[in-house]
Specification:
The protein is α/β, with parallel strands linked by helices. It is built from 11 helices and 13 strands. About 50% of the residues are buried. Bound molecules: uridine-diphosphate-N-acetylglucosamine (UD1).
């Protein structure tokens, strides 16, 4: 399966947060599949220079409009002017630690932002939404492999980021029940990592990275001295946490599969899919794979456990395979190799415009 396996030619798709890490990789794949892509982004955590890279790697240029999803009027106008048929919604705040400090911002941008987007969709008569959700909605007490049949556990999530995602999913359930012509797909990502194989696009975190892979990349390239591994006394084979890392290009392709499925199925309602590999890796395995991919030594020490971390979480990826015909194909070694290509070629991320 690749972007040309889908029949998405000339589909007019709005990508919110399309300048961000996952949004930009998905926008690129949509472009390559012949879609007419309109990106909106408020650029709080991204730069317009990513658009130059999308242009370089695809044959057509997406429309870009700087706007915030909370600006309902402007977003409605963008939808109408570009004759949008489908929305893929990535825009949002995503730093777990920060969300415990400024929950108001998280609920405003993530939750109110999604309400605003739904209002704009109603105004512009757009009836299809794919929502960027997270495996975090299963809460911290669920036992892996996690299947979509498990309940969303708002009480079992310790941070506003995760709760905002869970609450959005619950809201979308209510909206689809009440609006019989609305189609919503929630995609629950496990741990998206990696970068475009060309090394031209990747993750560009502002300041100190919160997540493992960008931190490891920055240590490898010499921007940071060493990594602290958060806990080595978990009940796992090597004592460090197990996570389900998936390549951002696999993830991007999954969005095209979800869009294609929705169009073919032609039936409204809510559907939920896990997006993961089903194969967990430990923190130490990631470090080792990155050392191999980069040829660099990654110094690390062991620190305390990070609050809110669970010992092990990974997907049951079967439903996405059965219904969407989509599964991941990149290995952990390739995820590390491509992250390294990006980091090594762009040590300071995307240039300022
Ligand atoms: C985190 C979020 C999750 C979110 C996801 C997005 C928490 C508790 N969870 O997932 O809600 O959906 O990011 O990608 O933050 N690690 C280190 N040292 C570091 C950084 C990370 O040892 O400097 C370890 C962590 O303890 C964890 C693993 O690496 O065991 C992966 O961490 P991370 O990349 O932050 O992802 P998650 O915690 O799984």
């Amino acid at each position: 399966m690749n972007s040309s396996s889908f029949n998405l030619q000339n589909k007019r798709v709005l990508v919110t947060g399309g300048a961000g890490f996952i949004g930009s990789h998905t926008a690129l794949e949509l472009q390559n599949a012949g879609c007419k892509v309109t990106i909106i982004d408020n650029l709080t955590n991204s730069k317009t220079t990513v658009l130059d890279r999308i242009n370089e790697l695809s044959e057509t240029t997406p429309v870009f409009i700087k706007t915030d999803i909370r600006d309902t009027e402007k977003v409605t106008r963008v939808m109408k002017e570009n004759d949008i048929e489908d929305v893929i919604h990535f825009a949002g705040l995503k730093a777990v630690g920060e969300s415990t400090q400024i929950p108001d911002e998280y609920y405003d941008v993530n939750f109110n932002g999604t309400v605003s987007l739904l209002n704009a969709m109603k105004e512009a008569a757009v009836k299809s939404l794919i929502f960027s959700s997270s495996a975090t909605v299963y809460g911290e007490n669920a036992n892996p492999p996690l299947t979509e049949t498990l309940a969303i556990d708002v009480q079992g999530i310790s941070h506003a980021y995760g709760r905002s995602k869970a609450m959005i999913e619950l809201m979308l359930e209510d909206y689809t029940r009440a609006n019989k012509d609305l189609s919503v797909t929630c995609l629950r990502y496990f741990n998206p990592v990696g970068a475009h194989p060309s090394g031209k696009m990747g993750e560009d975190p502002k300041g100190l990275p919160n997540n493992l892979m960008p931190f490891v990349s920055q240590v490898a390239v010499g921007k940071r001295e060493k990594l602290t591994v958060f806990g080595n006394d978990y009940n796992t084979p090597d004592g460090t946490c197990l996570r389900d890392y998936l390549h951002v290009c696999d993830l991007a392709e999954g969005h095209l599969a979800a869009l294609d499925y929705r169009i073919k199925k032609g039936k409204p309602g809510l559907e939920v899919f896990n997006f993961g590999t089903g194969k967990p890796s430990s923190v130490l395995e990631v470090i080792k794979a990155f050392e191999k991919a980069s040829g660099k030594n990654i110094p690390y020490d062991f620190g305390d456990r990070r609050p809110g971390d669970v010992p092990s979480t990974y997907a049951d990826p079967v439903l996405a395979k059965e219904k969407l015909g989509w599964e991941t194909k990149y290995t952990l070694d390739e995820m590390c190799k491509h992250s390294w290509n990006w980091q090594n070629d762009n040590p300071d991320g995307y240039p300022d415009s």
